[in-house]
Design brief:
The chain is mainly alpha-helical. The protein is built from nine helices and two strands; from the N terminus they run H-H-H-H-H-H-H-H-E-E-H. Pfam families: DUF599.
Length: 230
């Protein structure tokens, strides 16, 4: 009743802080730098499309394969967990509830339902990211003319498609990571809290960009952003 909600609140608070930082100071976060680099990459690729059309398709194919792999992993974990619910509960039943948490049937059901929900939502995000990556792969090489103002397939639209694909992929990754403490919740609440603390520290070091030991400046230009993310 204390450790699990406290760890969950810590994780939610961190991501709310990260979301606010991405909106206000995007160049101090990896997500903001990646968005800037992606836009610069699209503009560079489409500038000389005859020579770089295959580079764009191959690059998106790599991202597409990653999302497909994670989507398959999420659905396999969901189905495998659903198949092993009863046997897992019967193994844990004799353990001491003081350390390993409650073994009441309703509590066990809440644990498994939360875990399955997380993996299914991760699968949904990965599936949607695959859809946007597929659309981007088709539209990035569409011929464009400055005189054709009625053409809806603009560079801005293509950049939005790529941003949605990587954004949903990032959300799917975070949901997948959130399944780790929920898996440990089957063992007990102490490991859940410790996992949330470790995961928050790791994600902070991954998400926040630093230059020579200092937080990145918001005034960095596009070229510096691309260099930093590479």
């Amino acid at each position: 009743m204390i450790l699990v909600p406290l760890g969950f609140l810590m994780c939610v608070s961190y991501h709310l802080w990260l979301w606010q930082k991405i909106r206000t100071q995007p160049h101090q976060t990896y997500v903001g730098l990646k968005s800037t680099a992606q836009r610069a990459w699209v503009l560079t690729t489409t500038k000389d499309n005859n020579k770089k059309d295959m580079i764009a398709v191959q690059s998106v194919r790599n991202a597409l394969m990653g999302s497909t792999l994670m989507a398959s992993t999420s659905i396999v974990l969901s189905t495998g967990l659903a198949a092993l619910l009863s046997s897992t509960y019967s193994i844990k039943k004799p353990l001491n509830s003081t350390i390993y948490g409650s073994h009441d049937e309703h509590v066990a059901a809440i644990k498994y339902v939360c875990l399955l929900t997380i993996f299914l939502f991760a699968f949904l995000c990965y599936s949607l990211s695959i859809r946007f990556f597929g659309q981007f792969g088709f539209l990035v090489n569409v011929p464009r003319s400055n005189e054709d103002e009625n053409n809806p397939v603009t560079l801005e639209y293509v950049c939005v498609l790529l941003g949605k694909g990587f954004g949903l992929n990032t959300v799917g990754n975070r949901l997948f990571f959130a399944g780790i403490p929920l898996l440990l919740w089957i063992v007990g609440p102490i490991l859940v809290f410790l996992c949330y603390v470790c995961m928050t520290v790791i994600l902070y070091n991954v998400d926040v960009v630093t230059y020579n030991g200092k937080t990145g400046s918001r005034e960095l230009g596009d070229q510096n952003c691309v260099t930093a993310i590479v």
